[in-house]
């Protein structure tokens, strides 16, 4: 360790001059010979390695916004490459569609986690919506056997409601803080009427029971917790 009498700093490492003023620097013996006032420095600093002329800067971290851009770029590369392979080789690379779909789902999951990382219930709600859309799409492109509208969607909505309630209780959330997600499940459940109406759901027992269950839930909420429901809707839509 050395000392610059002009800048009045201690300098770490084997230096020939001060890195700030490029002036002459002194070691411990040199300072004593020069009779520099000891009140201007701490002699112990010349023996320790942690005092430096320049501060140690923290490593730059990747922000959430930058990470989202990187993920979007990777998604774009995957889509372009898959479309290119599909154009060149046709049905020989039938896996490209599934790859694109999986990549989009993963990208949406990452964005949801980044956007709502401090709200588990919102992340879970986004995951359920994405899962419903993806499963319905897969059912469609594989000949539509109806498993998505007959079983997956009803059980997915019921499961999401149960998990939401469990998480809310575990986190000790108020009713007003999680009821909106149950109402979202009820809304999606009512949309199953479309599949029944157009004949896509040929075995609607599960869907009908789920719709009836959500109707009962909403009626109970309106009758006994309407004020909290209104408050939750106001917070959601900023009214």
Secondary-structure blueprint of this entry?
Blueprint: E1 2-4, E2 9-11, H1 28-34, H2 64-89, H3 96-115, H4 120-141, H5 147-170, H6 175-190, H7 192-197, H8 205-224, H9 226-237
Antiparallel strand pairs: 1-2
Helix pairs in contact: 2-3, 3-4, 4-5, 5-6, 5-8, 6-8, 6-9
Describe the protein in words.
The protein is mostly helical and 239 residues long. The chain has 9 helices and 2 strands, in the order E-E-H-H-H-H-H-H-H-H-H. Helix 2 packs antiparallel against helix 3 (96-115), helix 5 (147-170) packs antiparallel against helix 6 and helix 5 runs parallel beside helix 8 (205-224). Mean pLDDT is 82; it is low at 48-53.
Mean pLDDT figure: 82
Large-scale geometry: elongated
Percent strand equals under 5%
Question: Cα-atom Rg, whole angstroms?
Answer: 32 Å
Distance between the termini: 65 Å
Helical content, roughly? 55-70%
User: Can you count the helices?
Assistant: 9
Uncertain parts? 48-53
N to C succession of SSEs: EEHHHHHHHHH
């Amino acid at each position: 360790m050395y000392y610059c009498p002009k800048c009045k700093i201690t300098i770490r490492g084997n230096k020939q001059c001060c890195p700030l003023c490029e002036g002459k620097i002194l070691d411990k013996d040199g300072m004593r010979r020069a009779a520099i006032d000891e009140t201007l420095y701490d002699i112990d600093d010349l023996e320790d390695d942690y005092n430096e002329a320049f501060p140690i800067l923290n490593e730059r971290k990747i922000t959430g916004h930058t990470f989202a851009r990187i993920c979007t770029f990777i998604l774009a590369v995957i889509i372009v490459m898959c479309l290119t392979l599909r154009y060149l080789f046709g049905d020989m690379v039938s896996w490209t569609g599934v790859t694109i779909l999986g990549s989009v789902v993963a990208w949406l999951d990452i964005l949801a986690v980044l956007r709502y990382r401090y709200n588990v219930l919102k992340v879970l709600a986004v995951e359920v919506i994405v899962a419903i859309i993806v499963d319905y799409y897969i059912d469609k492109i594989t000949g539509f056997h109806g498993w998505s509208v007959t079983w997956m969607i009803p059980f997915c909505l019921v499961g999401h409601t149960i998990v939401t309630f469990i998480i809310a209780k575990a986190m000790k959330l108020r009713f007003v803080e999680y009821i909106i997600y149950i109402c979202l499940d009820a809304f999606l459940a009512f949309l199953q009427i479309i599949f029944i109406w157009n004949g896509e759901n040929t075995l609607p027992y599960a869907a009908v029971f789920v719709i009836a269950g959500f109707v009962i839930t909403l009626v109970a909420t309106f009758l006994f917790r309407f004020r909290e429901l209104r408050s939750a809707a106001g917070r959601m839509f900023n009214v």
